[in-house]
Amino acid sequence: MNVKQPYVVTAIAISFVVIVIIISTSSNREVASETTSDDRPDVPKAVSNWPQEELRLGQVSGVAVNSASQPVIFHRPGRSFDQYTFNASSHYQHIADGPITEPTVLTLDPRTGKVVGKWGANFFYMPHGLTIDKHDNMWITDVAMHQGFKFKPGELEPSLVFGEKFQPGSFEKNLCMPTSFAIASTGEIFLADGYCNSRILKFNAAGQLMKVIPNKHEFLSLQIPHGLALLESIDRICIADRENMRVVCPRAGLYGLQGRKEPPLTIQEPDMGKVYDVSVRGNLIYAINGPTSGVIPIVGLTIDPQNEKIIDRWSPPDGGFNLPHAIAVCPNGSSLYVAEINPNKIWKFELVPPK
Ligand SMILES: *[C@@H]1O[C@H](CO)[C@@H](O)[C@H](O)[C@H]1NC(C)=O
Ligand SMILES: *[C@@H]1O[C@H](CO)[C@@H](O)[C@H](O)[C@H]1NC(C)=O
């Protein structure tokens, strides 16, 4: 007993010192990582005199950026979405007018904003969302047709069609005014459906339905999911949950079942307003809101989804936005584009370090 006691005391003392060292290094590490995440995000700065020529656009509902860093816009020449477009059962009321006869998809030069390519005439009735995946496939929604489409590069006929033409519905094969797509690098397809069903459908790359978000066990209620963006590094699908005035990011489920019970990340602040669209840059989301009430400014929002916070608010000089409808960050993160309705226009912003 007597012999052992000093050893016990020494052992206790040593473990104490070791514990103190562990605690102090780990708290140092936390401080260090907090300082990095406090770094202020790059600020979107409007490029003046862009586009350099007038484009004469209809309502610009969609924008995406292709692998050549060219912005591609989706617009509604000669047509607008108003209270007479659909009746009470969500049927499109102007089928007899036929599809839009002018090109609806325009590829622009990123430097000058001039049109360098156009297609999509005589097909679409009421353009809405446009997404371009890393293989340059175009994913398009038309709210009048109640359909979503995949177009391979250079092809004018869709290779995948979701929903039935002009047939709104809420079961598996029908959509109702679908708004937007997001495509994972692993090929899974997320489709926001949309104005009436307020659900996200997840399909495999071949177009087979895998999952509906929210499922009946999920505590998540969406109200007009209007835009989507994937944050693949943390396995989240971020949704511009427009009428709920928030961005919500449930699990995307790209990497199996791990973490499937974790609650969605939710970003909601009193001045956020109706969020129309979201786009990802690194670990951040750049978003735009739209008309909500006279007291909520219509601006761009920079969001840190992991901390569930808006970390910056930005807008173009002179007058700001009126109805920004879609946003897209270019693949290397150097710029972003905002599509706007009334006035119908496309904005280019460069992302610059804060002053
Ligand atoms: C990103 O892409 C744009 C357009 O192609 C190019 O002008 C710019 O130099 C690129 N920036 C970086 C940081 O690679
Ligand atoms: C809406 O229009 C469709 C076809 O245009 C029609 O079949 C349907 O009955 C209408 N619904 C209502 C509620 O009026």
Explain how this protein is built.
It catalyses: a [peptide]-C-terminal (2S)-2-hydroxyglycine = a [peptide]-C-terminal amide + glyoxylate. Its cofactor is Zn(2+). The protein has 355 residues and is mainly β. The protein has a single domain, classed as Neuraminidase (6 Propeller), CATH 2.120.10.30. The protein is built from 1 helix and 24 strands. The strands form 6 sheets. The chain has a 4-stranded antiparallel sheet, with no helix packed on it. Bound molecules: 2-acetamido-2-deoxy-beta-D-glucopyranose (2 copies). The site of one 2-acetamido-2-deoxy-beta-D-glucopyranose has 4 residues, from loops.
Main traits of this protein?
single chain; 355 residues; mainly beta; Neuraminidase; 4-stranded antiparallel β-sheet; binds 2-acetamido-2-deoxy-beta-D-glucopyranose
Outline the secondary-structure elements.
Elements: H1 4-38, E1 43-46, E2 59-65, E3 71-76, E4 105-108, E5 115-119, E6 127-132, E7 138-142, E8 147-151, E9 160-162, E10 180-183, E11 189-193, E12 199-203, E13 209-213, E14 225-231, E15 236-241, E16 246-249, E17 265-267, E18 274-281, E19 284-290, E20 300-304, E21 309-314, E22 324-329, E23 335-340, E24 345-352
Antiparallel strand pairs: 1-24, 2-3, 3-4, 4-5, 6-7, 7-8, 8-9, 10-11, 11-12, 12-13, 14-15, 15-16, 16-17, 18-19, 19-20, 20-21, 22-23, 23-24
Binding site for Zn(2+): 128, 226, 325
GO biological process, one term: peptide metabolic process
Keywords: Calcium, Disulfide bond, Glycoprotein, Lyase, Membrane, Metal-binding, Repeat, Signal, Transmembrane, Transmembrane helix, Zinc
